């Protein structure tokens, strides 16, 4: 289990930002921020709003999570981005709306994601993982930034500026001041100290900045200061960065042309835009991601298939739940039951969730949370359908274990009514499977007309599943 807490990171960062108005920090995934925000007192909430309004705290990406780009469906990507942005806009207004896509950790990148970001009015997308050979060529030719053409059909409306981070999404070597996950020495600027190391740090930083600038086409360089789980003690970071900024800029008096300051991807993008450089274009995916020789990250396209399926079931349940709630004129009374599934479906789009790259106990928890939130939405479906049908005494039951061909409802009776709901705006032909314990059934439509049906044996591989508890041998 990871020994880290996002709540402590936000606690610490906010306090450090309040101490110095030149300091900046970006925040990405709304899910964790929202959990923190709801626990804060109004006085601190107002201070955070001030930090957002003056640009010190900037929301980047802003979806409920940083979604995967290979196993996630575009509908669920749009849903989770919409929910995250809705929370931010409702809370912080226009200043809380992100303008930058921040996909630094997904394992390869989709042209469709670029198109979606462009349609969301994002100005750019930043990422860190691309094929190592592609990266080598781009570094040599200063093409780590480009104009990504997201869709042939949409044309320029789907174009988006794209920045690939050469160093990954962590700090430069030798500049990691995280107390829990770092180890680099602090900047000692007391000239009386035997450990005085200002010149050493300034020389190292300027050397690295000049080297790094050779990878990009303009004179703007972006250094990400921090990475996963860092800043639980933000003071160690900001105290050393304050010193670094002061002493590197002091070198300009001796002829240095390196100017360093706190920034954000939005500010960086403005600098790149003002350079008036013409960038090359790309019109396909950054897939598959190959981090080294024979190291293609493609197994996750199909890993944890049961969870991948369950996530799609969850999306279906969410769309049906939202639609029926609206059609039955719920008028918001069911939000406490709908929102949990909306939020957990947002979590499921994470690049370590639907991707299948999470640890087993995490995967188990995802499935459990999804099950619980689907159940809450099923009560909304039950109530809404009864309102639409006009009979509030009906009790809609659900088959939640069809993935193992089991359903206590259909196995426990030989006479029942089956409710089928089509969430699409058009007709569909879909095979319906119901586990049964008998060999002969008559299936009728609502008008009493016979519907073609067959009895099909459940495969032995399914019948032998240890976790399956069912008497049904046919469907």
UniProtKB/TrEMBL annotation:
Regions that span the bilayer: none
Catalytically driven reaction(s): Hydrolysis of terminal, non-reducing alpha-D-mannose residues in alpha-D-mannosides
Which top-level enzyme class is recorded in the Swiss-Prot or TrEMBL entry? hydrolase
Query: GO cellular component annotations, sorted alphabetically?
Result: lysosome
Query: Origin, by domain of life?
Result: Eukaryota
Give the enzyme's EC designation. Answer: 3.2.1.24
Q: Which cofactor does it need?
A: Zn(2+)
Please list the residue ranges annotated as the Glycoside hydrolase family 38 central domain.
Answer: 295-370
Q: Which GO terms describe its biological process?
A: mannose metabolic process
> By its UniProt entry, which Pfam families does this protein fall under?
Alpha-mann_mid, Glyco_hydro_38N
The alphabetized UniProt keywords are: Disulfide bond, Glycoprotein, Glycosidase, Hydrolase, Metal-binding, Zinc
Provide the GO MF annotations for this entry. alpha-mannosidase activity; carbohydrate binding; metal ion binding
InterPro entries (alphabetical): Gal_mutarotase_sf_dom (IPR011013), Glyco_hydro/deAcase_b/a-brl (IPR011330), Glyco_hydro_38_cen (IPR015341), Glyco_hydro_38_cen_sf (IPR037094), Glyco_hydro_38_N (IPR000602), Glyco_hydro_38_N_sf (IPR027291), Glyco_hydro_57/38_cen_sf (IPR028995), Glyco_hydro_b (IPR013780)
Q: Which family does it belong to?
A: Belongs to the glycosyl hydrolase 38 family.
Q: What is the protein named?
A: alpha-mannosidase
Question: What is the originating organism of this protein?
Answer: Medioppia subpectinata
């Amino acid at each position: 289990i990871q020994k880290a807490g996002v709540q402590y990171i936000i606690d610490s960062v906010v306090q450090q930002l309040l101490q110095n108005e030149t300091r900046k920090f970006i925040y990405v995934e709304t899910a964790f921020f929202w959990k923190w925000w709801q626990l804060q007192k109004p006085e601190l909430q107002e201070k955070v709003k001030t930090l957002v309004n003056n640009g010190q705290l900037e929301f980047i990406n802003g979806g409920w999570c940083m979604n995967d780009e290979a196993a996630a469906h575009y509908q669920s990507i749009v849903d989770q981005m919409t929910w995250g942005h809705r929370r931010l806009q409702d809370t912080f207004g226009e200043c809380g709306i992100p303008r930058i896509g921040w996909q630094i950790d997904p394992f390869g990148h989709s042209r469709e994601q670029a198109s979606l970001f462009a349609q969301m009015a994002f100005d750019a997308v930043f990422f860190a993982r691309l094929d190592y050979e592609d990266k080598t060529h781009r570094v040599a030719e200063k093409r780590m930034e480009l104009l990504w053409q997201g869709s042939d059909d949409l044309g320029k409306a789907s174009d988006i500026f794209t920045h690939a981070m050469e160093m990954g999404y962590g700090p430069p070597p030798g500049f990691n001041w995280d107390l829990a996950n770092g180890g680099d020495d602090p900047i000692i600027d007391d000239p009386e100290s035997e450990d005085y190391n200002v010149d050493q740090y300034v020389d190292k930083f300027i050397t690295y900045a000049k080297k790094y600038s050779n990878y990009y086409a303009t004179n703007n360089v972006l250094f990400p200061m921090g990475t996963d789980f860092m800043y639980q003690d933000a003071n160690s970071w900001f105290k050393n960065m304050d010193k670094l900024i002061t002493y590197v800029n002091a070198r300009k008096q001796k002829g240095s042309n390196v100017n360093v300051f706190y920034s954000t991807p939005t500010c960086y993008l403005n600098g790149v835009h003002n350079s008036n450089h013409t960038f090359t274009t790309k019109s396909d995916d950054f897939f598959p991601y190959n981090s080294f020789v024979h190291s293609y990250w493609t197994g996750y396209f199909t890993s944890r298939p049961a969870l991948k399926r369950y996530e799609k079931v969850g999306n279906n349940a969410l769309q049906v739940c939202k639609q029926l709630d609206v059609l039955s004129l719920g008028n918001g009374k069911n939000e406490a039951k709908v929102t949990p599934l909306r939020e957990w479906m947002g979590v499921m789009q994470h690049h370590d969730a639907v991707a299948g790259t999470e640890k087993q106990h995490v995967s188990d928890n995802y499935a459990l949370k999804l099950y619980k939130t689907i159940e809450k939405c099923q009560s909304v479906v039950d109530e809404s359908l009864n309102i639409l049908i006009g009979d509030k005494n009906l009790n809609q039951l659900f088959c939640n274990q069809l993935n193992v061909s089991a359903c206590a409802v259909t196995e426990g009776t030989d006479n029942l009514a089956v409710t089928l709901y089509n969430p699409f705006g058009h007709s569909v032909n879909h095979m319906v499977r119901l586990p049964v314990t008998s060999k002969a059934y008559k299936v009728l439509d609502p008008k009493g007309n016979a519907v073609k049906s067959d009895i099909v044996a459940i495969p032995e591989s399914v019948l032998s599943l240890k976790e399956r508890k069912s008497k049904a041998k046919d469907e």
